[in-house]
Write a structure and sequence with these properties.
The protein is α/β, with parallel strands linked by helices. It has 3 domains: 46 residues, no CATH class; 194 residues, 3-Deoxy-D-manno-octulosonic-acid transferase, N-terminal domain (Rossmann fold), CATH 3.40.50.11720; 172 residues, 3-Layer(aba) Sandwich (Rossmann fold). It is 48% helix and 15% strand. It is built from 18 helices and 14 strands. The strands form 2 sheets. The protein has a 7-stranded parallel β-sheet with strand order 3-2-1-4-5-6-7, with helices on both faces. A 7-stranded parallel β-sheet has the order 10-11-9-8-12-13-14. Helix 1 runs antiparallel to helix 2 and helix 11 packs parallel to helix 12. 42% of the residues are buried.
């Protein structure tokens, strides 16, 4: 019965959504905001109960709904406010260095960070609690929610990461002379085909933006094709590539060995990695493994697996090295990123379950090829760029994982080219952070 209710609710929401799109296309031809705002408000009121029911029966709830409705205390930020929005985890992580740089370059401005999801909010609080002056949820895109949000936050400049094109928000920004930017813009093929059918509508929305800055020429052309003004749309490259190598040196006896790092592994992945390592080390005795579980409380279970496999292992916390150990567990905090400097290649965990993967660029920045499982939704755009060459490989099964490790170990020419590909990708993509900072300097100096 519950499943039937959820299914029927989803069908009704789908029908309402299609009807809404048709209405919005018609409205966009005749009106700027009034009719659109009226329709979105009515649809919001009608659809919210169904949305709530679906979320509850799926075991999820409406997090941040008060803030999204605009019901929060005014933070009293003054009239110099720069706002950044990243809908979820991947977008928030991409904004990290830019937000910190913004605070450094423009100390007189208050920084506001908004997200659209609970996980995005958690990451924002974790990363920006000492940087941002206010962290909250992005408002629902209906007039009374957006109006309340903008009256309380009062941003001078709003920078929206990737492809969050909210019509009401953009209209309100334009009417209040708030400089609105799309930064790190990208568009998948599936999204492009959907938006292309609504060009009349999105042309009106995108015209409200001060500038639209994309990750690539391909993304730029897609956005122009759905209505972005040519004179306002430019390539900025990808913010996620603006990371730096650690200055710290690492010595855990790795000289003379090839080191495979399994970084940020989750439950079920350690066994996969250890099976592959155990298989390869008999053929390649110079191979070593640095195993880095995402959560340290799983180490006892990992130890049991290795003891059963009779592997020779040690611990970073005990000062063990590869001179007398085949496997070392990194059981210390905050050292993973610098450890990638000593590896030959890396497996990035959280990708053989539903976690959505972790950041491969921590390894790629050292020109080290990466391997990941199929679950990569947190960093899909990054893996897309890496997998266009041999800089990164997405494997669907443990068998495919094993075969690719064999390729990296056995084919020296292939491995060296993969390392070069890592350097090429970084060279092609870096510089996005400076583009945005320069844009802010130009706007603020006006």
């Amino acid at each position: 019965m519950f499943r039937s209710l959820v299914y029927n609710s989803r069908v009704m929401i789908t029908y309402f959504f299609i009807l809404a799109l048709i209405i919005l296309i018609i409205i966009s031809m005749f009106s700027e905001l009034f009719l659109y705002g009226l329709v979105t408000t009515l649809l919001f009121i009608v659809l919210l109960p169904f949305y709530y029911i679906v979320r509850v029966f799926n075991g999820k709830f409406l997090y941040g709904w008060k803030e999204k409705l605009g019901f929060f205390k005014s933070p009293n930020l003054g009239n110099k406010v720069i706002m950044y929005h990243g809908v979820s985890v991947g977008e928030v992580i991409a904004l990290e260095n830019l937000i910190k740089k913004t605070k450094e370059v423009f100390p007189d401005y208050k920084i506001v960070v908004t997200t659209g999801t609970k996980t995005g909010q958690e990451i924002a609080i974790k990363k920006f609690s000492n940087v941002a002056d206010f962290i909250t949820y992005f408002p629902f895109d209906v007039p009374f929610c957006v109006d309340s949000f903008l009256k309380k936050v009062k941003p001078s400049i709003a920078l929206i990461a990737e492809t969050e094109f909210w019509p009401v928000f953009s209209f309100f920004c334009k009417s209040r002379n708030i400089k609105l930017y799309c930064i790190n813009g990208r568009m998948s093929d599936s999204t492009f085909h959907l938006y292309k059918c609504l060009t009349c509508f999105f042309k009106n929305v995108l015209s409200k933006y001060t500038k639209i800055l994309t990750q690539s020429e391909i993304d730029k052309n897609k956005l122009i094709a759905i209505g972005a003004p040519v004179e306002k749309t430019f390539v900025m490259k990808n913010l996620k590539f603006d990371i730096k190598k650690s200055d710290e040196t690492v010595d855990i006896g790795q000289d003379g060995f090839r080191v495979m790092i399994a970084g940020s592994t989750h439950k079920g992945e350690d066994g996969i990695v250890l099976d592959i390592f155990n298989e390869k080390v008999s053929k390649y005795p110079d191979l070593k493994l640095l195993l880095v579980p995402r959560h340290m409380n799983r180490i006892p279970q990992i130890v049991q697996i290795m003891e059963k496999m009779k592997l020779n292992f040690g611990f970073r916390s005990k000062g063990d090295t590869f001179k007398d150990k085949n496997v070392i567990i990194l059981d210390t905090m905050g050292e993973l990123s610098k450890m990638y400097s000593i590896c030959s290649f890396a497996f990035i965990g959280g990708s053989f379950n539903k976690t959505g993967g972790h950041n491969p660029l921590e390894a790629t920045v050292y020109s080290k090829p990466t391997i990941t499982g199929p679950s990569i939704h947190n960093f899909r755009d990054i893996y897309w760029l890496l997998s266009r060459s041999n800089a990164g490989k997405i494997v669907k099964t443990p068998k495919e994982f094993s075969n690719y490790v064999e390729k990296l170990l056995s084919d020296k020419e292939f491995y060296e080219q993969a390392c070069i590909d890592c350097e090429t990708v970084f060279h092609d993509q870096q510089g996005a952070l400076d583009v945005v900072i320069n844009e802010l300097k130009e706007i603020i100096s006006e």
